[in-house]
Design a protein that fits this description.
- The strands form three sheets. This protein has an eight-stranded mixed barrel. A two-stranded antiparallel ribbon has the order 1-4. The protein has a two-stranded antiparallel sheet with strand order 2-3.
- The protein is built from six helices and twelve strands.
- A hairpin with a 2-residue loop joins strand 9 and strand 10.
- The protein is 33% helix and 15% strand.
- The radius of gyration is 66 Å and the shape is rod-shaped.
- The chain has 436 residues and is α+β, with helices and mostly antiparallel strands.
Length: 436
Amino acid sequence: MDFDHGGPSSSDRQQESAAEIARKKVLAAYSSTVENLKNLPTSARDALMNEQNSTASSPANDPYTPINTPEYQPTQPNWSENSYQQTPIYSQPEETTSTYSNPYDAQDYTEPTSTPYDIDELPTDDYQPEDPSALKDMPVNQAHINEEWQKYHSAWQDYYKNYYSEYYAKAAESYLATEKMKNERIATGKVQRSHNLRKLIPIGIVIIVILTGLFLQYNRMIFAPIMAYVSPDSGSVATSIEPVDPTITQAVSPEPRLIIPKLNVDVPVAFGISTNDVDAAMNEGVAQFSIPGANALPGQIGNLVITGHSAGDIYSSNPYKFIFSGLERLENGDLIYVNYNSVRYTYQMIGRETVEPSNVAALIYETDKPMLTLITCTPLGTSRYRLLISAEQISPSYTDAGPATPSNDSPSDNDNLMPANEPSFFENIWQGIFGN
């Protein structure tokens, strides 16, 4: 004690500090050891406990017996005023005196701390708390690891088992429902009918393609006979044409036209054109087919030849493709009118003839009268033959009429064939690929 200033002396403070430092080191080492023991697996701690039970015979032989047992009761130190020394006085049984060391000796004693584990469970031979690094040499509990891995693996197996069980259950349910519907359809004959219909699909497609081709090629054969009994489109001219008295002369328009009252035909006529332009002119009405020996004009002695279409494709834009479809209805004595240079010439039918397209000689013959010949294709819807309608001029009087002017044009390839109907669908394709 420091009697001059009061309180413990400097030597007392030094002794106390050294003891406190030693005590803290011991506690730190002990705490780290206990923490390592806490981290041990349960199986490792059980092994340590079993090993301790096999080697420890009695609690008296355990060097780690807690100091707070009934045999040991520490007392407060008694300070002597003369020596200034801290003298601990202990009260303990005699048998423990020889084995007990100073509690402040850091090398021989470690003060226990509170721990959730019983100190009696610690090993006495293999475990040394003074050397915590020895824990790293302890064997790994492989049985515990395998047990945990088995649990993890089993959990995943159970998951996938449940998942696929549900998946295949739904798939099986769907399959059974499909099979049930199939069986019902088989029982009612729907499957067989469905199979038969599927077999007919390619056949149906082929039939549709064939019918489409046939329609494109031969549709004119369907519509031409119908149009033969329907009034042709005559444009702005009235569709009701009445025969006129041939003996009465009346003023007419200067536009050249062909009029057939029985067929209700009133159509423009192209006169004085080349045979190469006849096909184009028939898209605008009818045209004169002028060849040497059959090139007379209205009122001249000779043969006036006029040609027109009798049939064409229904999708064709030519409004005159059916203009001569009714020529077969004409009979001897029917009247035909031709307007030319503001004069109306009246012709009366006297005969008909069917010839080959190449028989142009049937148009050339000797005559002392003004004659008219109408040409069109027959049978209706084809261009196989040519129908010739012959008529004689009965008005006006032709007693003073002169002969037709001889043609100075050289014969062309078109003079060898009479004009034909418009090309059919496949004929257009053929001509587009290989030409005329």
